[in-house]
Amino acid sequence: MDEGVLLQIKNLTKSYGDVLAVHDLSLEIFSGEVFGLLGPNGAGKTTTINLMSGLLQPDSGEVILRGEPLKARDPTVRGRIGICPQENVLWNKLTPYEQLVFLGDMYGMSPSRIRHRCQMLLEVLGLSECANKITATLSGGMRRRLNIALALIHDPEIIILDEPEAGLDPQSRISVREFIKSLVKEKTVILTTHNMDEADRLADRVAIIDRGELLVLDRPEALKQTVGEGDVLEISLKKGVTQIEPTLDFLGDRAQILIVEDVLQIRALDLVNLLQQILSSLHDRGIQTGDIRLRKNTLEDVFIQLTGRRLRE
What we know:
This protein is an alpha/beta fold. It has 9 helices and 14 strands.
């Protein structure tokens, strides 16, 4: 196993009765990266998370953590992994500070270490002012941030964040994103999200799964260049230009080319790197161009092509 690999998943399979939730899934997660796990509802993301964190026993296959097989519900593993579930798990009658202290004590942390972690997490997640307020009185955004803090109180080396931005206002989303980026200096983050922009901004690599199988795994930028419907380029043309395909025949079958109301529309993969060649070909043939607009391929385009549906469908 590569020295940079922290978590290795090998041929995992898990069924619930006749339902195959995860099928022969294999992937590697590197130390110090943000790893995005994406898939439509029912794709097997939650089961995969529970398997890789040791909460579930696979029917076959194995999870290897730093070279050692991970056994389901192994107590030695719980201090190494922190999980922030999609639904908040909080004690409404306790204050945020009391909850963090209680959980830190459950992990066997020393009182001084608990105090230090509490103060740090409450401050960086913007919860210091409500540290001693009853949790039931907190806003949805504060409760979500508290749930993230609880997953981190024991200072785990792997943090699994399931929809961390769910229910957050725009300002809180920005602060949580910045906090996640700061974690990468010393931790590995596994992120599931329905927000493609969030995955694109945060993840070093993205795995897209569907029906329990891995469809693709790569850097977001690489996926956008090689998978999906492609970038969209719009170029204003001089009136009367109706025939353009022979000029751009070097694009071949990989491009969709239309002229709509004196605007040339081209859709193809990796158009950013083809733009100069396209403009040169047009100018060499005396075709005058005006405004140029380019919309790059998105992670959503990639996702839809691979799964045939949007993330929330």
